[in-house]
Amino acid sequence: MNARAATAIVAAALLLAGCSGVEPWVKPYERDRLADPIMSFDRNPVSTSYMDHVREAREGARGAAGSSGGGCGCN
Amino acid sequence: MERRRASLLLISALALTGQAAVGGTLPEERMDALYHFYSGDNVEIDGPSLLVRKNVGQSVSVSGSYYVDSITSASVDVVTTASKYSEERTQWGAGIDYLHGDTTMSVGFSNSEENDYSADTINFGISQEVFGGLTTISMGYGSGSDEVRRRGDDAFQDTVDKKAYRLGVSQVLTRNWVVGLAFETIADEGFLNNPYRSVRYLDGAGGFAFQAERYPRTRASNAAAVRSRYHLPWRAAVAAEYRFFTDDWGIDAHTLELGYTQPRGRLTFDLRYRYYTQGSADFYSDLFPYQDAQNFLARDKELATFQSHGPHVGVTYTLFDRTSDTRALRGSASLFYDYIFFNYDDFRDLRVTGVQPGTEPFFSFNASVVQAFFSLWF
Question: Which of B66, B70, B172, B296 could form a disulfide with B50 if both were Cys (CB 3.0 to 4.6 A apart)?
């Protein structure tokens, strides 16, 4: 299943690579709202990495969380 | 191994998709000083966290971080199988980002030290903006080398090697909407259980006894996440996030988070609710039928079936903003509070005694997490 998912993403990536002629459909002057700090996925990295650590020490899941760190965190 | 090959294939294919450079940006120059406090299940952890990021010239950004956990623990595992303890963990980190056209390359190193655990981690990353900045593709590789020790047992020493492969895509869909996809494969090898934890088993005489946990020496996991942020017609944003996790220990987990951000004058309010659920590892049991009942044995509640969920409330106050065309100068103070409910479906509370083994009530607890921090953009 993982190999299948990877193949699908590879195919999508190669398709994207063939689209270098695509015009950006959101023009630079239309990006004021996207540039607003409230639209950032990680507005406060210091807080995000701390909360990731709090969760990783107590949950079985890990990864794809947006930041990384070290340590055991065994409590 | 098949998972690792698939992930490498994926990374190589994405490396082929690099597009012509137009002009990316370095991360914000910023300094954060945070105090964190966690309280739950008779565990208290607090300490500072510092993060500084500064540009050197036009194309290099350097960062440094310092983090401390001061831990006092009398958790349910500790009071039923060991004794209350205090310890400290200190982590240092340093990183460099280099911007060339639309490509950002980064390298980072961190070291974490406890009296019974040392961890060194190195991370490499590359991100590339394509389609005039509407799409950002990022890839990362992390390698960790840990040393595990056991207090009061100088003869015990073991290692853990970690490898992480990351892939991310951030995509602007409309002038109000951005989505992100993230995928991460992590492979561990070494001493993966906690050297202090025990499992319990029926002793054949109507009671139970303990023996040391025994985990496999390898673990491979995959996580995939999708995140979305949408700017409302007024100045506010809604966020949604879902992550699926699976590993070869048999744990499957789902995380769902919804959020709302509302600025008002100098204040910015954040509201979020996060829900997490996981199934147990294949070799987990609250009560094994007899000693050495199977090759691998775990009774760590991190590997049990449970749900955790709760709200996040945050407020940020802009102290000053003297940003001009030539430079940013802004400061803010933030206070964040998270309340988390943990409910276990197959981990029993052994503080309840005088009942038939295996009929104790299921364990649950609530935790409070406080973050207070100052941020300076310069």
Answer: B66
Is A40:B27 a contact under the CB 8 Å cutoff? no
Judged by CB atoms closer than 8 Å, whether chains meet at A24 and B131 is answered as yes
Is the Cβ–Cβ distance between B292 and A49 less than 8 Å? no
Residues of chain B with pLDDT under 50: 1-22
Contact B302 A13 (CB under 8 A): no
CA A42 to chain B, closest CA, distance in angstroms equals: 11
Alpha-carbon B191 to chain mean position = 20
Residue B1 contacts A, CB cutoff 8 Å: no
Look at B303 and A60 and tell me if their CB atoms are within 8 Å.
yes
Residue B266, phi then psi, degrees to nearest 5: -80, -5
- Put simply, whether A60 touches B (Cβ < 8 Å) is yes
Give me the interface pTM, i.e. the ipTM.
0.91
Contacts across the A-B interface (CB distance below 8 Å): 216
CB B202 within 8 A of CB B45: no
Over the stretch B288-306, which tens digit does the pLDDT of each residue have? 999 999 999 999 999 999 9
Using CB atoms within 10 A of its CB, is residue B346 exposed (0-12), middle (13-18) or buried (19+)?
Answer: middle
Whether B117 sits inside 8 A of A72 (CB atoms) is yes
If you count DSSP H runs as helices and E runs as strands, how many of each does chain B have, helices first? 2, 18
Can you list the domains of chain B with their CATH numbers?
A: 2-377 (2.40.160.40)
Residues in chain A: 75
B-contacting residues of A 35-54, CB under 8 Å? 36, 38-41, 44-47, 49-51, 54
Examine the pLDDT at A5 and tell me if it is beyond 50. Answer: yes
